[in-house]
From TrEMBL:
Keyword Transmembrane: no
Positions of the Dienelactone hydrolase domain: 119-289
Protein name, per record: Alpha/beta hydrolase fold domain-containing protein
GO terms of molecular function: hydrolase activity
Region forming the signal peptide: 1-35
InterPro entries: AB_hydrolase_fold, Dienelactn_hydro, GDXG_lipolytic_enzyme
Keywords from the UniProt entry: Hydrolase, Signal
Coiled coil: none
C-alpha cells in the first residue's frame, strides 16, 4: 500500500494541481522575470491524512497559525509550528530497502511542498526508494498574506543583505535539526512495516532544506544519514568528519544566492577523502526543483537517481 498515492499527499497533490490548474506548466516554463509576477494566492490547508506528527512539540513562541498558498503552479506551507513526516512508499514488491528523507526549502520561512517535497518523494517511490517528506518547523512570518509577501520580497530583493553563514549551525537550526532527528527515528522504528533498511536511510534537501540536510549530517548526533543530497544550497567550507556520508550536489551557475561564494564544501569533502559528486549547471537559477524548465538543470533528478544506483541503493540487498 502506498499512503502517498491513496489518501495522503496523492490527494493533496491532486488538490494542489487543481488550485494551480492549467497555469502550472506555463509558470514552470516561464522566464524568471515572468514567473516573478505570479502572485501568492491563499488556499485552504490541505487534508494530509498520511502525515505523521513527529512529536517534537510546538515551535517555541509560534503564535501565527500554519497557512498555505499557491504560487508558480505549486503549493507552499508557512508558519509551520508542528513538524510532520509524510511517507511515500514504493509499490508492493518494488522496494529496494533504501529510503530518503526529503527536506523542502523556502528560507526557513516557507516550504515548497510540491516542487521540492511531494513531487520528489513520489518520483523516488516510483523507483523503489521509500521517501518521506519532512514538514519541519519554520521561523514565524506575518500571518496576513500582504505582510508575508512584503517580508519575502525584502528577503529576495537584489539589494537585500545576505546573512552570513551561521557560526554555530547546531544552535541556529536547533528546532529543525530536532525535527530531522525525529524523522530518522520514526523511519527506523517503522522500518519493518515500511520495508526500509535502517542503515540505508539518506536525506535530500533543497536550499534551506539543503542547509538542514548538511546540519543534520554534521550535527544531528543519532540521525546519521547514510547519504546526503544538497540541491542549490550554500557550498561554504565546513569541517568534514572522517565518516562523512557520500554527498551529491547540484547547483546552477546563475543561482542568485549561492553560485558566487566558491565551492569550499566540495573541496573539503574531497580533501577528507569522502565520496562527492558535483553538478554545476550553466542555467537554472534558484529553486528549479522538479519544474520542467528548458535548462539542463532539469536533469539533476535523473543524475541523482543514477548516483543512488551507483552506490547500490536501487537494488535490494541479496
Amino acid at each position: 500500500m502506498n499512503p502517498g498515492r491513496l489518501d495522503g499527499p496523492g490527494a493533496v497533490h491532486a488538490m494542489a494541481r487543481s488550485v494551480a490548474g492549467a497555469m502550472a506548466l506555463a509558470w514552470a516554463m516561464a522566464s524568471p522575470a515572468m514567473a516573478q509576477s505570479d502572485r501568492m494566492v491563499p488556499i485552504a490547508t490541505p487534508h494530509q491524512a498520511a502525515a505523521i506528527t513527529l512529536g517534537t512539540g510546538p515551535l517555541p513562541g509560534g503564535a501565527a497559525p500554519e497557512s498555505w498558498h499557491s504560487q508558480y503552479g505549486s503549493v507552499f506551507a508557512r508558519n509551520v509550528t508542528i513538524a510532520t513526516l509524510t511517507p511515500f512508499l514504493p509499490p508492493a514488491g518494488k522496494a529496494t530497502g533504501a529510503a530518503v528523507i526529503v527536506a523542502p526549502g523556502g528560507g526557513f520561512r516557507t516550504l515548497s511542498m510540491n516542487n521540492e517535497g511531494w513531487d520528489v518523494a513520489q518520483a523516488l517511490a516510483d523507483r523503489g526508494v521509500a521517501a518521506f517528506v519532512l514538514k519541519y518547523r519554520l521561523n514565524q512570518t506575518p500571518p496576513d498574506m500582504a505582510g508575508f509577501e512584503r517580508s519575502m520580497a525584502e528577503m529576495f530583493s537584489a539589494t537585500a543583505k545576505r546573512p552570513p553563514a551561521p557560526q554555530d549551525p547546531a544552535a541556529t537550526y536547533a528546532p529543525q535539526i530536532v525535527d530531522a532527528r525525529a524523522a530518522f527515528a520514526l523511519v527506523r522504528s517503522r522500518a519493518g512495516a515500511w520495508h526500509v533498511d535502517t542503515d540505508r536511510i539518506g536525506m535530500l534537501g533543497f536550499s534551506a532544506g539543503a542547509m538542514l540536510t548538511m546540519s543534520t549530517a554534521l550535527h544531528g548526533q543519532d540521525a546519521k544519514p547514510a547519504f546526503i543530497g544538497n540541491i542549490y544550497g550554500p557550498l561554504s567550507a565546513v569541517a568534514v568528519p572522517a565518516d562523512a556520508p557520500p554527498l551529491f550536489v547540484a547547483l546552477a551557475a546563475d543561482d542568485p544566492f549561492f553560485a558566487s561564494a566558491g565551492y569550499g564544501l566540495i573541496d573539503n569533502w574531497r580533501k577528507a577523502g569522502r565520496p562527492v559528486e558535483f553538478h554545476l549547471f550553466e542555467q537554472g537559477g534558484h529553486g528549479f526543483g522538479m519544474y520542467p524548465k528548458p535548462t539542463t538543470s532539469t536533469g539533476w533528478f535523473d543524475s541523482y537517481v543514477r548516483w543512488l544506483g551507483m552506490h547500490g541503493y536501487l537494488k535490494a540487498r541479496g
